[in-house]
Amino acid sequence: METVTQLLEEYKIQIRENQSYGIGGQNCFPFHAFEGTLPHMPKLALEVYDTPDEEWPEAVAEVYRDVWNNPVEWAKTVEAKYKPDMICLQLASTDPMGDDASPEKAADIAKSVAEAISLPLIVYGCGNAEKDGKVLKKVAEALAFKKSLIGPVAEGNYNTIGATILAYDHYVIAQTPTDVNLCKQLNILLSNLGVSLDKIIIDPTPSALGYGLEYTYSIMEKIRCSAFQTNDDKLNLPMIGNIAREVWKIKEVKIDDPCMGNTKTRGIMFEAMTAISYILAGSDIVVLRHPQTLALVRKWLADMSGTKAEVKTEPIGVSSQGLEVSCEKLADKSIMQDTEAESVNENKIVQSAFSAFRELGEGLAGDVYAAAIALDLKQHGLEPEKDVPLAITYKGVEIGQIKNNIRVGNTLVVIGCKDKNILHNYLASQGLSYGIGLSFEETLNIVYAERG
Q1: Residues 103 and 200 in one domain
Q2: What CATH number corresponds to the domain at position 350?
Q3: Each residue of 304-330: pLDDT tens digit?
Q4: Are 56 and 248 in contact (CB under 8 A)?
Q5: Residue 204 needs a FRET pair 20 to 30 A away by CA distance; which of 101, 402, 421, 435 works?
Q6: What total number of domains does the chain contain?
């Protein structure tokens, strides 16, 4: 049989890690965990507006209409009901072409929202460089008590905003036209101003599916390639995609045409596909509008990473032509808590396995990997139990024991196991629910099993 050698890339630089938001830190391209380390999954934010937009498509208007006249209640509802990773406050009322709200009023709203929520806060101005220069200064001052991610900071106002954001220890969203060189140039300008590159998040200017997404995607890829392949320390920064406004203003999410299927479903799918494209291109944060999109993308992230989805939205029941997009609520709260705990454990187990693989390489004895993973899990605050007795039977007679395994809560980890069915048998013998098989070869191979 022909042997295929898998060539792995190893990069000397990593994306700057932002501990406050749990983003960055990776030293490989999105989901290339076989080549590097992915310490954080992309974060999903839901947006809140300081003023309602009566022209919103009905698909999202029906979700938020009861609260959209009060941004504080809107933010509290989003946090309690849909549980995103972050909340993004959009200060649309400050637009000179709209309400032209004062910087002071915007700052008061931002402060009230920040006080009402416990989630991390992102604040976006209206996008007018001159007005944002005034508004975001006031916002940075008002949010002195809560470190936030504030922008967009552009070449036209970085001098005005940058110093204030720096003074109050916030994070900067640096937005440029979709161009690698302009992106790098703004990062350098902010750095020269005294803003640490560790405090900057890149916004390459968003676009929606069918409306320039392919160009934005290619530029984001070039930013990542410049960071990893040329060790560019001015571009190895996390990226954000503030995509919701772009998606929900296009005609395809609004027009009611039976030939194009259900309008509501279409809008959610447009937003989900745009979000997924941004994540695949390297985005560390994606700002969404519809809670059903949040559920879909969260499920996709779980599937891509091999973990369990923590679906945190209530069902909205979007369906069309046999397509059912819904989220089932778990009836028993204790079951939900157990599931979430095991999901966290599995994430830590997989990350520990990758850490051991990167440090130790391939081909060592199974007990070495088991010891390394157990040590790592203890450092994560877990209590792994090594060498759970797994009996091997032949013709009904026990002939041996499988060692090199770890039990963490209701999850069993077996080193060297490549077969899902065998892993399932081990689970049945121990009365456990979740199993992970790890094989340390040319790449780290992972199989999953679940009982029930």
Answers
A1: yes
A2: 3.40.1350
A3: 876 554 444 443 344 333 333 343 433
A4: yes
A5: 101
A6: 2
